[in-house]
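pasting Alpha tocopherol transfer protein for the record, 235 residues
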Amino acid sequence: MEASVQVTLAEVPLSPLPKKKVLILLKNYHKWRAECPELSANLQPSSILNLLHAGYHGVLRSRDPGGSKVLIYRIGQWDPKMFTAYDVFRVSLITSELIVKERDTQRNGVKAIFDLQGWRFAHAFQISPTVAKRIAAVLTDSFPLKVRGIHLINEPLFFHPVFALIKPFLTDKIKERVYMHGSNYIQSLTQHFPASILPQEYGGEDVSIEDLSQEWTNFIMESADYLQSISLVFQ
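structre below
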């Protein structure tokens, strides 16, 4: 584990965070990965390929005005009969491992848009207290990447109990960065993200979410060798 920490620290000078804080985050992350092999042992694209092909996840081509990388997740594309909550979270982990190498992302962090249209009880049943705690750990102090905002759209009423399960594990800072936009979200969402960078389906002027999902899936597949190399460290 120490050897892998040292390798990762080669990128620390790019980060705006104090080196000591980055080291703490990295150690927390390595500890988290060691304790959660079901999530992090296998980061190869093949482990979540069908979920990617379903169009579950995309990354905007342009950053927001503050320089943050913007990620989109479509819960309706997650079939809970085929994929577990761990599979779904592994998609986020793989993307995080790839974008954390970017200088601008290290400086300006990430924002995520979760489209909860299609959220069902079958999804909710997969979010146990253990899963909630492990998700919260990455959002708070177990990954050297700043979460600048979490935006929920189309969230149904029965999603709120699930969020209530995760919320106690979040820091106050992260709680303040969670926005619930509801089903009539376009006006409020474009107060945070200019229409010029959003996909057409979300009131934007850029390409479709399907195109963005395909582009990011291709990038993940092209990164398979790197992802396999960091998987082997923790197996």
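The radius of gyration is 17 Å.
The beta strands are 57-59, 69-74, 110-115, 147-153, 178-180.
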